[in-house]
Amino acid sequence: MPWNNQSGGGPWGSGNSGGPWDQGPRGPSGPQGTPPDLEEIIRRGQDRLRRALPGGGGPSPAILGLVVLALLGLWLFKAVYTVQPDELAVELRFGKPKPELSEPGLHFHWWPVETVEKTSVAERLMDIGEVRSGGSSGLMLSGDQNIVDVKFSVAYQVADPIAYLFNVDDPDGTLRQVSESAMREVVGRRPAQDVFRDDRQGIAEDVRAIIQSTLEEYGAGLAINALSIEDAAPPREVADAFDEVQRAEQDEDRFVEEANQYANQQLGQARGEAAQIREAAAAYKNRIVQEAEGEAQRFISVYEEYAKAPDVTRKRLFLETMEEVLRGSNKVIVGQGGGQGVIPYLPLPELRGSPQRSSAPGSALQSGQAQGGNN
Fold it and tell me: Which stretches are transmembrane (predicted)?
C-alpha cells in the first residue's frame, strides 16, 4: 500500500513519532544532516597520529635511523647463510642455479636477487621391501615361477647437488621406485634358490648397476654406494613347504658330500696301494736285474779262468759242485776192496745210525773208510 509523508510518515510512522519504535532512522551527523566529508576524516586521523608520535609527528632522524638499521639487519640476516659440514649449497640468481657450489662454512649472497638451496651430501640408507598396508612391497616372481619376499637396503648419497635439486621432482621417491623395479627385473631372471642363498651377492651387484645407470639417465644426481639383500624368504602361506624343500636339499647336499668324502678316501687308499705295488715291483725288478748281472759277471769271470786252464777249472768246478750236492746228505764211504765183513747189500745208513752195534761191523766200516781214504 503506498504511503506518503502526509498521512503515514513512511514505515516508521508520521512526523516526529519515529516509526514503530517511536524513532526514525538516524541519518549521518553533520550540519543540517549532510554526510561527513572524507577529507575531514583523513585530516582528523592525521591529527591524531601527530599527537601520538613524539615530536609532534615531524620527521625524526633517530626514528629514520632505527628504521634503516632494522632494514639493514633484516637484509644481512637474509644475505648471510651457513653451510653445515655435511651439506652443500647452490646459489640461485633470479631462479637460475650458479655452477659453483658453496662448501661448508659462512657465505654471503645478494638477497633477494639471489637465493640459496641446501642439501645434505652424507650417506643415506633406504630400506625397501617393508610390509605395508594391504601386503608387502617385497613380493616378487622369480625366474622359476616362485614367489619370494625380498627385503633389501640401498646406501646412496648426493653426488651432484644441482642435478639432485633441480632435475628431478622427487629424487628419493624416484630412487625407491627404480630400486624396486631393478630388483624385480633381476629376480625375474634368476631361480628362487639364487635369491635365497646361492648368489645373493651377484644379484645385489646386478641390481646396483641397473639402478645407477637408470639414475644417470634421469640425471638425478645420486650415487649408489652399496646394495645389500637383508632378507629373502618365501611368503608366509607357503613357508612350511619351502622349509621342507630346503631341508631336503640340505640332506641331499649332505649325502653328496659324504659320498664324495668316501670316494676320495677310497681313491686315496687305492692310489696309495697302487704306488706301493709300483714301488715293490720296481724294487723287485732292480733286485732281479742286479742278481742277473752278478751271475753273468761271475760266469764271465769263471769262463775267463776256464779259458786259461780248462782241466784245472773243470776239476775245481766238479769238486765244488759235488761238495754242494753231498754236503747235506747221509753217506757211507767204502773203499775199493769192499772192507772186511761188509755185505754189499747191508743197509749201511741204518748201521751208521746205530751207535750200539758190535765193534766188528764198526771196525770193518772204519777199516773200509780208512782204505777208501788211503786210496
Answer: 52-77
